From TrEMBL:
<dbReference type="Pfam" id="PF01863">
    <property type="entry name" value="YgjP-like"/>
</dbReference>
<dbReference type="InterPro" id="IPR002725">
    <property type="entry name" value="YgjP-like_metallopeptidase"/>
</dbReference>
<feature type="domain" description="YgjP-like metallopeptidase">
    <location>
        <begin position="22"/>
        <end position="231"/>
    </location>
</feature>
<dbReference type="InterPro" id="IPR053136">
    <property type="entry name" value="UTP_pyrophosphatase-like"/>
</dbReference>
<protein>
    <submittedName>
        <fullName>M48 family peptidase</fullName>
    </submittedName>
</protein>
Amino acid sequence: MLTQTILNGREITYSIKRCKRKSIGLKIDHQGLCVSVPLQTVLPHVEIILKEKADWITKKLEQWENKKSLAISWTRDAIYPLLGEPWRIALNSSGEIEMARHFSNETANMTIAEQSMPQLDPHQIEKFVMAWYSQQAIICFKQRIVIYAQALNISVPPFRLSRAKTRWGSCNSRGLIHLNWRLIQMPLHLVDYVVVHELSHLIEMNHSARFWKLVGGVYLDYQAARKQLKDYA
């Protein structure tokens, strides 16, 4: 059973599952909010529980939405985030495919362009978009490393793009920085945090109080950035 409610000014659609249990349970995943309730529970009581848990529910739903925004489907009309902004495959004036900023008010011109778009299979799209992401990531990350290496008064280290599944960045004992290519999808302030974090490891190869003092001396609001990154994890 699907129903709706308003939590923190936001319209939330959720499913209700009645089962043999003594209390109300809340579950949030890629499908949204599911509320498991005892068999005889009335809807107004469910609403009361949801209002009490409104902050937790909306926060968790936003976390899942962030995860979905980074999930890539290799299709011609998909949106590909770059530094937090939406981009998509388009045709340039020469009839060649390129990446272009996507604006929500695009209508007729977009339809015409799509009709003229050459046929691309998912593998071709993945190859094209990943080459674009890699190019953008290398340019951006190099620039940010130079800026924050100067701020930390250290030499600019070499870096490599990473495809790690569980790490945004790393730094080894040889001074080589690895930055996850997916960072280029995120807002710039989160890229900056990871860069500062890894550069600080060139001075303190640990997570001691001295390490966090180094990070905080260059990136003041690092705790908020850490929290946001966990939402994307």
